[in-house]
Amino acid sequence: MRVVRLLLAVVAVALLVLAATPWVDRVEPSWLPAVQALGKVWIAAAVVGIVASLVTRAWFACGTNLVAIAVALVTIVNVSNRPDCDAGDGRLAVMALNAYYGDADVAQLAAAVQRHDIDVLVMPEATEPMIAKLAATEAGRRFTHRSGQTPESRDTEGTVILSRYPATRVDVPAGEAEIFQQPAMSVDVGGTPVLVRGVHPKPPVDDWLQDWRTGLMELGQWQRANRGRPLVMAGDFNASSAHAPFRDAKRGMYDTAGWWPTSTWPLDRAYPPFADIDHVLVRGLSVKGSGTEDIDGTDHRAVWADLRICSR
C-alpha cells in the first residue's frame, strides 16, 4: 500500500506541474502551448486521482490533486470583465466559424445563421466559392456588406466579415495580420458604430511559435488602442485563456462563452474537443446569450453571441 501511495503522490505532483504550465509565458519548448491547452484533461485526471487517493488513504496525493484542480480552474473559469451596462435596443448577433479551407457545410451554416438570426458572420479560412454558395441561400442573402476578397481555392489565409448592417472597411496596422487576413469593419448598428475584427493568427506549431505569440500580442495592442467604442473580436484565435499571449490579447474584454467555455477544437477526431480556441470577445456590449454550433466539414465548432448596444 505504501508503494501505491507513493505512486499516487508522484502522479499528483506531475499533474500539479502540468496544471500550472499556463502561467509559463514562453513559446519553447514547442510542445508547451499544446500542454497548456489541456487544462480540462488535467482536471479530469486529478478527479480520478482524488478517488484513488481516498480509497488508499493517500492524503498527500489527495491534497495535491485538489490544488492541481484549483490551479487549472483559474485559467479555465471565465469570470472577468463581464460588461456592466444596461442593454439598449441595438442588437448585434455575431457568429464566427473557421471554415476549414472553405469546406464547411454551407447548408448547415445557413441553418445556424437563420436559427440565431446572425447579423455579422466572421469566417477564417473562407474561400470565394464557399461565400458564393452561402450568398445563394436565403440566410446568406442577408449579408449585404463584406470586408474584402478571399482566396479562390482551398487555403487557410482568407478571413471575411459579412454584415447585414451597413459596414465600412477599417485599416489595421501592418504586422502578423498581413499573413493571415484579419480584417476590421465599422458596423452601423442603429446609428452606433461597432468595430468588428476578424481574428485568425498563426497556429502555435514549430515554425510559427514566435509569430503566434507576436500575432496575439498585436491583437491586444490593437484592441487597447481602440478603447472608447463598442468592440468585437471574433474568430479562431488558435489560443485559449491557458495561453499568456491570449490573456494579453483579451485584457479588458469579455469572452462571451460564459463562465465555463465549451471546447471548440478539434471536432473531427476520435476523441472529443478539448480546447476552446474560437471566441467572440466584446467590450461596450451587453451579452444576452451565446453558444456553439457543430458544422460538418470543419474541425472547429462555430461560436455565436447575441449582443446589445449598451444604453449607458
UniProtKB/TrEMBL annotation:
Species name: Aeromicrobium senzhongii
| Gene Ontology MF annotations | endonuclease activity
User: Which residues span the membrane?
Assistant: 30-51, 58-77
Kindly give the SUPFAM superfamilies that the UniProt entry links to this protein: DNase I-like (SSF56219)
Q: What is this protein called?
A: Endonuclease/exonuclease/phosphatase family protein
Q: Does the keyword Cell inner membrane apply?
A: no
Q: Which InterPro entries match?
A: Endo/exonu/phosph_ase_sf, Endo/exonuclease/phosphatase
Ranges for domain Endonuclease/exonuclease/phosphatase come to 96-300
Which keywords does UniProt give here?
A: Endonuclease, Hydrolase, Membrane, Nuclease, Transmembrane, Transmembrane helix
Q: Which Pfam families match?
A: Exo_endo_phos
